[in-house]
Design brief:
The structure is a homotrimer. By secondary structure, the first copy, chain A, is α/β, with parallel strands linked by helices. Helices cover 16% and strands 29% of the residues of chain A. The mean pLDDT of chain A is 96.
């Protein structure tokens, strides 16, 4: 597959500054791009490549416009490159609809039109699978699960009973949706299990990473709203709610009953304690530990977290702490002599 | 299913303060409870709901007794609500005993009475499965594994060869029990694998979360004693021992050969270094990193951890560090002028 | 199986100091070793056992040579014990080559000689499996995956389409190789998925732990070079490269496009931000958060990390911070009185 630079600029809705007929055969990262390839520069860190890249063309912000280069000028080069990626590549490999004979499907399960049910997949009684949905090899769908249209559940995913999944949801391999929440009451002889009688509800267009676990509610629902993206090995405990458009990066974890607002970003390895509220648009930096409610729009860092500007200031001061302590001791000596 | 408030109070062994004939149709969380529903208040944070909740009845501590409300008075409302949950809901959906024809069971494996062996489950040679145990879809049981009675191994769990599992153990989806410990010796050409010749032994009544990994010992046993509860995505390395009644929350990790005492709590994302001992009843707060032996009953926080009261004091002082540094500089200036 | 102490010393290439005809029936850890058993002392922490151990023989460093004991003297007792372990124990249980009839193998897949394809394994179209490779129960191999010779992929592993795996690679249960990278561009209605059109390439002799996830590149390759060992529940994001001989401990995570050099050690729960370079031989201590490039040979600790000697010094000073703040306040009072 190939496109001209002009075709690409037009399709992604950005301004061409160069040869419209230049043939682009491939897309490539800025470090490796060569002749016939289109790449992009989205941040200052990569600005130097404008003069050194061997790419035939680049998507760059308008301020990097340079005579003699074949460029596409875009306010958001990252987004424009994403659109170009979607011209060249499908998001997922195509699979032919059909039910593999090795799949085990309960009689009472309902499978929509044009579904793909892969080898050794298991679909339990009462489950409903929407049209065009793909259930890949080794996936286990529990009883009474409802899955919408055009979803993709990749290999060895487990979806436990009664989970409700919207349309266009993607779940990557070995993720577990709807396992029991971690609920027990202490008794003399150990721990009394609290039945986890609730469910998980996943909104439309959500993507859930490999190995991620989302637990069913004790009562009611654990909710992932629409347009949420969740990376690999994330833990979401019972009764949590993650608001529309939020991003949860790898290995982050939410304890029980915590409410994450809309368009929140939890960076990698963040931990959030239970029964808290994180306001809309908050950004929690990597490895932070959230122990209190966080207001909308706040940027947080540290364990326990503080406003990020303050946390970073303290981090910087800590680097000079040995010096400050020396200075304190020097003052003490001076004063001792004065006495 | 419904019960009267009187029936519930009697069954859970708590004092009724209200209409014994009030019909309770459902249980609900305090934030959402409405007419016909019973909820509970277990901590100060939720005390306000006593006047605002639309629940028909509440389980509360005796000191919240209020005239005109239908209440159950309980010293441990959390435990009492757990008991009520168990009146209304089963801990797990019932499955019919039987062996699904798609399961692959080695001839030499022994399956107890009334077992459920789900679709596409695999049971290898020499494995023994106790009476009433459920092996769900896609579970893989290695050779010579021994599993007790009335266990539930949910979908896509892997149990490696020779693992020994007690009675009434629950293992949630995609957990891995008995995979090789991370043992290598450094050699010029890379890493020489140390055979992991030991096993994992899991005690009675233990619950193990989704995606959790517990590694086999190099020699001898990795031991999880009885009544331990382990949350999702926890890592337990080779040769560790976790004592009776302990709680390990999500994404915590133990390095090799560490001994966790009885009734210890490791909160979420805690990490414990290798060859350490954590004393009975210790509590390790979330995200802490344990780098030394911890005495019984100690409460720890931080990475590396300290006694929690000290760690929290230091955290508070750090918030004022920029101010203290300013004050130090002011003193320096004053003294400079004096000289 | 048993060997004489003399046979063991000869085979592992270390000096015998004791009875060459002593029969060793088993190996054991130093804490539990008894009569007929060989153990080892590799660090100061275990030195005390030289006088208290009931083991019949010990591998110890030359400086611990003690008259009257049966010893093997070795400069690296850990390595020597590893070699002894390999005399007594196989690294993995043997499996008989053959294809289980329940496995689902696409017609266009190529299976090498003497392979083991376990129950309910799935091998998709165009995949190539090298000679002597074991694909255990429930493993799913995607389309066009290439796997070398003598690999072992344990139960319920998922390998996504087009992944390339070298020779002698071991992948432990429920790991996921080649799932989509976490790449999206922000748009008004949510997140625009960026197709993850690259692949994962795994070098020879690499071992990958249970539940670990390694994502495919956006473009090009996510690369794990040869002789790398990766523990359980590790996350490696798209476009990362991990250099030859490196060690990544449990629950560590790399964000996208980060380059880890050769012979690097990332300890447990370490997090590394994206687009960074960690130099050869660097050691990142447990739970550290790496936010900048790290030079070769550097030892780092903390979140965000510093050179470890400085980080540990600051940690120690923090323990005395309450005292230093008191001393600061005392000076202020003294000066106030002077004014």
């Amino acid at each position: 597959m190939s496109f001209t630079l002009g075709q690409i600029a037009e399709k992604i809705g950005a301004e061409l500054a160069g040869d419209p007929d230049l043939e682009i055969k491939k897309l490539a990262s800025i470090e490796t791009a060569g002749p016939g390839e289109l790449s992009y520069i989205a941040s200052k860190k990569f600005k130097k490549y404008i003069s050194t890249s061997k790419a035939s063309a680049l998507i760059v912000p308008p301020k990097l416009k340079t005579d003699g280069l074949n460029l596409i000028l875009a306010d958001d080069p990252n987004l424009s490159f994403a659109k170009a990626m979607r011209m060249f590549y499908a998001s997922f490999p195509k699979v032919e609809p059909g039910v593999n004979p090795s799949a085990v499907i309960a009689e009472s399960a309902q499978i929509g039109d044009e579904c793909f049910i892969g080898p050794n997949a298991v679909i339990d009684s009462g489950a409903k699978i929407g049209a065009g949905t793909e259930i890949h090899a080794g996936v286990s769908i529990g009883s009474d699960v409802v899955i919408g249209d055009n979803c993709k559940l990749f290999q060895n995913v487990t979806v436990c009973y009664k989970t409700i999944i919207g349309n266009n949801v993607v779940i990557f391999p070995n993720a577990v949706i709807g396992s029991d929440g971690f609920g027990y009451a202490r008794v003399a002889e150990g721990h009394l299990k609290i039945p986890q009688a609730g469910i998980v509800v996943i909104g439309d267009n959500t993507e859930i990473g490999a190995g991620t676990t989302i637990d069913r509610a004790t009562l009611g629902e654990t909710v992932i709203e629409k347009n949420v993206i969740i990376d690999n090995l994330v833990q979401i405990a019972h009764n949590c709610k993650v608001g529309e458009g939020s991003i949860i990066c790898a290995q982050a974890g939410l304890a029980g009953s915590t409410i994450v607002g809309k368009n929140v970003i939890l960076a990698g390895q963040v931990g959030v304690a239970g029964h808290l509220t994180i306001g809309d648009g908050a950004i929690i930096e990597a490895q932070s530990g959230i122990a209190t409610d966080i207001p909308s729009g706040s940027v947080q860092f540290g364990s326990p977290s503080r406003e990020a500007y303050q946390a970073h200031k303290i981090t910087a001061l800590l680097g000079r702490l040995p010096d400050y302590i020396q200075r304190l001791k020097k003052i003490e000596k001076y004063i001792d002599k004065m006495k």
